[in-house]
């Protein structure tokens, strides 16, 4: 019951979004709000990121709730990917990158000594912009994480994890007969779902997705979006996207970044139909850049 | 006029034709109403005229130089020495050099056939200067005629620019053909000499014989007059030293490549990589005396201390130093392969919760392996072909052994020793060098091709 009202809600938002883009004006809010759990999975407080001299993220505070999809939108170079990459500390490998502020995962500071970076990344998985399967077999791609973390101790356990992850991303029927072939031989959309399966195999709490569909065609994109919607029941998902329709379709809350500032965050319906800030309005109505 | 003055003259005249053609095109331009009415800019008419002068002139010069000498000699020799035996290269060479020296230095007296020789030398001198004059005239005339005809034809519609383009393209093709044909020529000359070696010594004996002792007795009663040409000990010696070298170079080179590519900060990298590559710039002769004067005695002393009998010219000393020499090959090529891998697969692995060394071991290294194997094969072929170090540090006696503490010799060392000193080219001892060279060439060629094949076939295509 709840599911169906949500779907209609989402459809309305998408239609309205298309309207606003075409008519170039924002209509009244209908106060669309889903029944979201209010528990926070990750909380970022006063986060600043500097790349050498550049101040890429300016004092951003943003929280990710349990079982929600939070989308981050904004023009190119606004820092949305940078913020995402702070959440699993993958930015650590960028030379000259400096992060201040506090990011908590279930109440533990991820930059403090308490949580090892390896453990953090096991709990906060990531899917990248370009599908990046390892040049290994499909099987080994998914088994990679569980083997690393000794989550599987026998061939049977590994099989179980691999097959269940493939099933979860809807790839099992497509690749069952070539599971030992290289993951790089799959099509772009299949590769991206393989990468999602690889992230799921480690059983993370949060999944970060950095423009996961930007290299894919509309059909593959639709499959991934459906998948994201299903995954929401078990994981918290943060997705950076350039497509506002995609943000509207898959997310419950939306954050708008501009030039390193978090301009606005709120329920997706609210942000798209009744943005509080002029910059957000300009961006979602297409008057920006 | 010598050949070099002629070349300089050709260059000078071609620049003269450049200006002539350019001026004529400018004059044509004034009659048709401005430079913009010309099909091409004036300088293109000049370039074409210059090239049309220089190219035919140089071609004629080249052809002339390659055949002229023989023709003049043949004329002189047949005229004055009708009884000369042309089959005997020694006689012909002897006469030729006598005539040539006489032509430059003057009369000869009190010799058996002084008169004939003097006359022949005069004739030779006359014919040579005649042919030089003919050569100079024909070279300059042909270039001038071709270029002049072009200048006459200059008009507003003459498409000088594409013609210049074609000529320049031809020039480039010609240059690359020179390189290719030189290679083919070297291979063929080695091949023919090797074939004449195999006429004397059977191919099977050379390839599968277990003893190498190329000294052939000049007199019947000399000791060691056997002349054994079994190349197996040489190739095992080469492989033994190469194996020792790779044992040193592979771990050191690979690990430093991984450090440079994955761990070193940009500052360290910008300093360490060139520093490592300096090793590749050290002349091999320096490595050679380093091996012979430092490493070999040290190893020998160390062996004595440990109770091992290490020969002073051991395979170990030569191999270790050769290994040091090829470290930069391994590390630099492997570093290139590793850095060429996309950052995205490293990030993917780190995002799965892998540590840096786990990422390198399980993702980076396997992905880079085909390229690394290729780099190693190139390093091996470099080690096999290396001469100076082994010449100075390895032994001369061909010994069939797998013990690196003993003295062995290599193919390259034997080639050098076979060709040092006076040689005759109908002697199997000399010809054996060509057979060895050919085998070595084929071996390194196969190694290099395999390396390229592996790199192409097994490397993932990352776009």
Descriptive account of the structure:
The complex is a heterodimer of chains A (about 290) and B (about 475). Chain A is of the alpha/beta class and about 290 residues long. Helix content of chain A is about 40%, strand content about 25%. Chain A has helices at about 1-25, 80-85, 115-125, 140-150, 155-170, 170-175, 190-200, 220-230, 245-250, 270-275, 280-285; strands spanning about 40-50, 55-65, 70-75, 95-105, 110, 125, 205-210, 235-240, 255-260, 260-265. In chain A, a hairpin with a 2-residue loop joins strand 9 and strand 10. The longest helix of chain A has 22 residues, at about 1-25. Chain A starts with a helix and ends in a 5-residue tail after the last helix. Residues about 20-35 of chain A have low confidence and may be disordered. Chain B is an all-alpha fold and about 475 residues long. Chain B has two domains: about 5-175, no CATH class; about 230-460, MetI-like fold (Orthogonal Bundle). Chain B has a two-stranded antiparallel ribbon. In chain B, helix 11 (about 345-350) runs antiparallel to helix 12 (about 355-385). The longest helix of chain B has about 40 residues, at about 160-200. The radius of gyration of chain B is 32 Å and the shape is flat. The mean pLDDT of chain B is about 85.
Q: Topology, please?
A:
The complex is a heterodimer of chains A (289) and B (463).
Chain A lengths: L1 H22 L16 E12 L2 E12 L3 E5 L6 H8 L9 E9 L2 E2 L7 H7 E4 L10 H11 L6 H14 L3 H4 L12 H13 L5 E5 L7 H14 L4 E5 L3 H7 L2 E6 L2 E7 H6 L4 H7 L5
Parallel strand pairs in A: 3-8, 3-9, 6-7, 7-8
Antiparallel strand pairs in A: 1-2, 1-4, 4-5, 9-10
Chain B lengths: L2 H30 L9 H39 L8 H17 L8 H39 L7 H41 L2 H6 L3 E2 L14 E2 L2 H32 L2 H16 L2 H23 L8 H26 L2 H9 L4 H30 L2 H6 L17 H9 L8 H31 L5
Antiparallel strand pairs in B: 1-2
Helix pairs in contact in B: 1-2, 1-4, 2-4, 2-5, 3-4, 5-15, 7-10, 7-12, 8-10, 9-10, 10-12, 11-12, 12-15, 14-15
């Amino acid at each position: 019951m709840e599911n169906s009202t949500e779907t209609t809600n989402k459809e309305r938002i998408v239609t309205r979004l298309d309207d606003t883009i075409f008519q170039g004006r924002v209509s009244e809010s209908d106060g669309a709000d889903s029944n979201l759990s209010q528990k926070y999975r990750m909380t970022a407080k006063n986060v600043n990121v500097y790349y050498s001299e550049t101040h890429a993220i300016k004092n951003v505070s943003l929280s990710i709730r349990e079982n929600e999809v939070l989308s981050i939108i904004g023009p190119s170079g606004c820092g949305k990917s940078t913020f995402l990459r702070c959440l699993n500390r993958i930015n650590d490998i960028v030379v000259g990158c400096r992060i201040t502020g506090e990011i908590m995962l279930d109440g533990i500071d991820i930059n403090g000594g308490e949580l090892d970076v390896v453990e953090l990344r096991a709990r906060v998985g990531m899917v990248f912009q370009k599908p990046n399967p390892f040049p290994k077999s499909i099987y080994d791609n998914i088994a990679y994480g569980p083997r690393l973390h000794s989550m599987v101790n026998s061939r049977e356990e590994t099989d179980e994890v691999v097959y269940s992850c493939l099933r979860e991303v809807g790839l099992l029927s497509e690749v069952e007969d070539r599971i030992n072939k290289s993951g790089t031989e799959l099509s772009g959309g299949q590769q991206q779902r393989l990468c999602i399966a690889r992230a799921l195999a480690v059983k993370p709490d949060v999944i970060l997705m950095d423009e996961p569909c930007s290299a894919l065609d509309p059909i593959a994109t639709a499959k991934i979006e459906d998948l994201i919607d299903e995954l929401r029941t078990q994981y918290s998902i943060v997705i950076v996207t350039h497509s506002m329709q995609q943000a509207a379709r898959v997310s419950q809350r939306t954050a708008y970044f501009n030039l390193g500032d978090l301009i606005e965050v709120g329920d997706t319906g609210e942000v798209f139909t009744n943005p509080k800030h002029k910059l957000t309005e300009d961006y979602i109505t297409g008057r920006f850049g | 006029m010598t050949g070099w003055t002629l070349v300089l003259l050709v260059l000078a005249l071609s620049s003269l034709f450049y200006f002539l053609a350019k001026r004529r095109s400018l004059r044509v331009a004034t009659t048709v109403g401005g430079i913009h009415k010309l099909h091409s800019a004036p300088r293109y008419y000049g370039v074409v005229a210059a090239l049309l002068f220089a190219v035919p002139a140089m071609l004629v010069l080249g052809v002339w130089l390659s055949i002229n000498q023989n023709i003049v000699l043949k004329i002189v020799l047949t005229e004055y020495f009708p009884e000369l035996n042309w089959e005997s290269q020694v006689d012909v060479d002897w006469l030729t050099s006598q005539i040539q020296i006489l032509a430059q230095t003057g009369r000869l007296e009190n010799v058996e056939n002084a008169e004939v020789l003097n006359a022949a030398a005069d004739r030779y001198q006359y014919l040579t200067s005649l042919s030089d004059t003919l050569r100079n005239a024909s070279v300059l005339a042909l270039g001038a005629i071709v270029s002049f005809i072009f200048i006459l034809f200059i008009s507003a519609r003459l498409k000088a620019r594409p013609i210049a383009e074609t000529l320049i393209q031809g020039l480039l093709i010609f240059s690359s053909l020179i390189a290719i044909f030189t290679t083919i020529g070297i291979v063929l000359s080695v091949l023919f000499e090797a074939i004449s070696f195999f006429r004397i010594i059977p191919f099977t004996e050379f390839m599968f014989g277990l003893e190498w002792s190329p000294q052939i007795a000049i007199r019947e009663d000399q000791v060691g007059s056997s002349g054994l040409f079994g190349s197996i000990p040489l190739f095992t010696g080469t492989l033994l030293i190469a194996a020792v070298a790779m044992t040193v170079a592979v771990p050191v080179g690979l690990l430093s490549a991984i450090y440079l590519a994955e761990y070193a900060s940009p500052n360290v990298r910008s300093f360490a990589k060139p520093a490592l590559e300096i090793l590749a710039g050290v002349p091999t002769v320096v490595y050679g005396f380093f091996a012979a004067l430092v490493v070999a005695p040290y190893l020998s002393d160390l062996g004595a201390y440990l109770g091992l009998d290490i020969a002073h010219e051991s395979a170990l000393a030569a191999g270790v130093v050769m290994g040091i020499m090829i470290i930069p090959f391994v590390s630099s090529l492997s570093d290139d392969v590793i850095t060429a891998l996309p950052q995205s697969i490293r990030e993917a692995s780190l995002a799965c919760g892998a540590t840096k060394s786990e990422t390198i071991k399980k993702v980076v290294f396997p992905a880079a392996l085909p390229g690394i194997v290729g780099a190693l094969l190139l390093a091996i072929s470099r080690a096999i072909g290396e001469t100076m170090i082994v010449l100075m540090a390895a032994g001369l006696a061909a010994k069939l052994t797998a013990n690196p503490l003993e003295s062995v010799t290599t193919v390259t060392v034997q080639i050098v020793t076979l060709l040092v000193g006076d040689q005759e080219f109908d002697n199997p001892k000399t010809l054996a060098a060509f057979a060895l060279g050919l085998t070595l060439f084929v071996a390194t060629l196969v190694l290099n091709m395999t390396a390229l094949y592996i790199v192409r076939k097994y490397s993932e295509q990352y776009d």
